[in-house]
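Fill in residues.
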């Protein structure tokens, strides 16, 4: 069905496939996933990203993972060293480099024409510098906050990772990026966090949460994440994502879910 004056089918999409990247794992306290629950319990969580193959050739990357080993420049810029975060990293091997994951799909960094950062934390923007040729899309609120974050949430922002000569296109709220690709503002974890909604060729809907949802337990309003900048906003964003998923009959891809790879298949698998 089309609306009056519309020339585009409601189900039209330029998305050809979606592949999920296994980009290493981190160690967190359970209470960072579930507010004041499980303090002292260590849990291993995945670092994930997504490659969206587009019919027009303008392929999209959602988040870029950790800083690649060969990008560390301890001799010239200590801020680029992963040692700053080493106690949080459980696994980050050569195959977890986002370039290796792209190669699993037969692609190179140059094939990525657009990068959508959910936010600028170190485990989501570490590979930004590998894609200087691409368009980068981030929320205006996130861009501004990342350069001068509140002290109590400043540590996850490593400025050298995102402030690396890239020109960012600053978005103001929800936006259709391309047919079948839309960003959703989901503040709470950070003030300018955004998630990604995708319409697959099959008609299935996938919503990539980024860090708006940390684990399935957060879908319970009484179990919000424990590391949000603003808990009230985080709860509202989770409710929004839950409603959209239920309304469209889609899948919520909870990007740091400790059981992520029990549900989802990693690249080179393609979801269509």
């Amino acid at each position: 069905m089309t609306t009056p004056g519309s020339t585009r089918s409601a189900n039209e999409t330029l998305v050809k496939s979606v592949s999920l990247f296994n980009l290493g794992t981190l160690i967190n306290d359970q209470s960072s996933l579930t507010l004041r629950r499980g303090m002292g319990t260590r849990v291993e969580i995945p670092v994930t990203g997504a490659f969206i193959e587009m019919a027009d050739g303008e392929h999209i990357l959602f988040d870029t993972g950790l800083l690649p080993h060969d990008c560390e420049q301890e001799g010239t810029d200590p801020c680029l060293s992963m040692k700053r975060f080493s106690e949080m990293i459980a696994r980050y091997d050569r195959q977890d480099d986002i370039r290796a994951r792209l190669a699993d799909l037969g692609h190179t960094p140059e094939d990525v024409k657009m990068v959508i950062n959910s936010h600028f934390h170190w485990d989501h923007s570490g590979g930004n510098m590998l894609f200087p040729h691409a368009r980068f899309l981030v929320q205006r609120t996130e861009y501004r906050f990342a350069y001068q974050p509140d002290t109590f949430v400043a540590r996850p922002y490593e400025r050298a990772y995102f402030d690396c000569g890239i020109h960012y296109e600053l978005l103001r709220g929800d936006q259709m990026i391309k047919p079948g690709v839309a960003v959703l503002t989901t503040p709470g974890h950070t003030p300018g966090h955004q998630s990604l909604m995708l319409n697959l060729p099959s008609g299935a809907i996938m919503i990539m949460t980024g860090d708006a949802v940390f684990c399935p337990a957060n879908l319970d309003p009484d179990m919000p994440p424990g590391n949000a900048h603003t808990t009230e906003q985080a709860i509202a964003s989770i409710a929004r994502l839950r409603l959209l998923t239920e309304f469209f009959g889609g899948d919520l891809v909870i990007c740091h879910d400790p059981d992520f790879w029990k549900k989802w298949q990693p690249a080179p698998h393609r979801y269509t």
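The chain has one domain: 15-263.
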